[in-house]
Design a protein that fits this description.
The protein has two helices and nine strands, in the order H-E-E-H-E-E-E-E-E-E-E. The longest helix has 27 residues, at 2-28. The protein is of the alpha+beta class.
Length: 147
């Protein structure tokens, strides 16, 4: 009986984190843009306008499922781009919007092993609408969620 209860609780936890991970990207897609002249660039750029649902996630811990897009060629990553889609379909390949990627910085610089398979991570979401040198979503203190 105890084994069954433990198994049931573990299954319920995994199901909840899967739904949370899928819902996070869905929420992050609720975004619009406005054109604004950027002095440094010398032309108009798209500036994100975050919805109320997105604003509610600012500074909160979120769970996301996606794919590591490495910024350096290492087996283990402490900072990387995380995409809702595989590399060949991600924003940088022209097949998705900027709301489908985020910068990730791991907690205490603990590396996450690269894989081409989808993984779940959690961390604290930071919204960025003013610095064009960074992505609009930044996940700090990220750790891998074990399944």
């Amino acid at each position: 009986m105890k084994k069954y209860l433990v198994f049931s609780l573990l299954f319920a936890f995994l199901a909840v984190t899967t739904v949370q991970a899928q819902e996070t990207w869905k929420t992050l897609s609720k975004i619009s843009y406005k054109k604004q002249y950027d002095e440094m660039m010398g032309f108009e750029v798209d500036v994100p306008i975050f919805s109320k649902d997105i604003m509610a996630l600012q500074g909160k811990e979120v769970v996301v499922q996606g794919y590591i897009i490495p910024v350096e060629e290492h087996d283990k990553q402490t900072s990387f781009v995380f995409s809702a889609f595989p590399y060949n379909m991600c924003f940088f390949c022209g097949n998705a919007g900027p709301e489908t990627v985020m910068e990730v910085y791991t907690k205490n610089d603990v590396a996450i092993k690269f894989t081409s398979k989808p993984i779940k991570i959690k961390g604290v979401l930071q919204l960025n609408s003013g610095d064009i040198n960074n992505l609009m979503y930044i996940l700090n203190d990220a750790v891998r969620v074990k399944e």
